[in-house]
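Researcher: I'm preparing a figure for a lab meeting and need a structural model of a single chain. I don't have an experimental structure, so a prediction will have to do for now. The sequence is pasted below. Please return the structure as tokens so I can convert it later.
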Amino acid sequence: PSYREQICFVDDRPGHDKRYAIDADKIIDELGWEPEQNFDTGIQKTVAWYLENKWWWQPIREQRYSGGRLGTNKV
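Model: Understood. Here is the structure written out token by token.
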């Protein structure tokens, strides 16, 4: 079967996916793209964002999270 026939689309699982990892070598080599952040600056910005946005994560930590999507608007 073709690769398209092997793809199984499923509903999103809010809060379930713990990590997304990619290897950017191909896009760097073929398009000359470079990431705007390295790991060190990226982690610093991530920690700063979480410290500035406690309203977003505290309900999850306190088990008051309803399971709905966070940070999105329904259309």
